[in-house]
Predict the structure.
Amino acid sequence: PRLTKDERLAALEKHPLIDKAILGDTDGYIAHIAHENPDIIALGYDQGGEYVEHLERDLKSAGLMTHIVRLKPFQPEIFKTSKLKPN
């Protein structure tokens, strides 16, 4: 990614529609999700990997009722982060 995870987090934290943004952790990720007990986890349209593949199952196993939504791309030929130029 062109932006670091901290830069992406800072941008999300500024958005008025986001209550709270936290960085994920692939090791023991369910523990930090359970601590926050979110209503919704939003995944990027191109986000993948083992963590994502097992997320719904792992949330259910932990007794969490978190809803997972997959974000749709918005003009990815223009706005995909890899195509954006840094400031």
Observations:
- The chain has a mean pLDDT of 84.
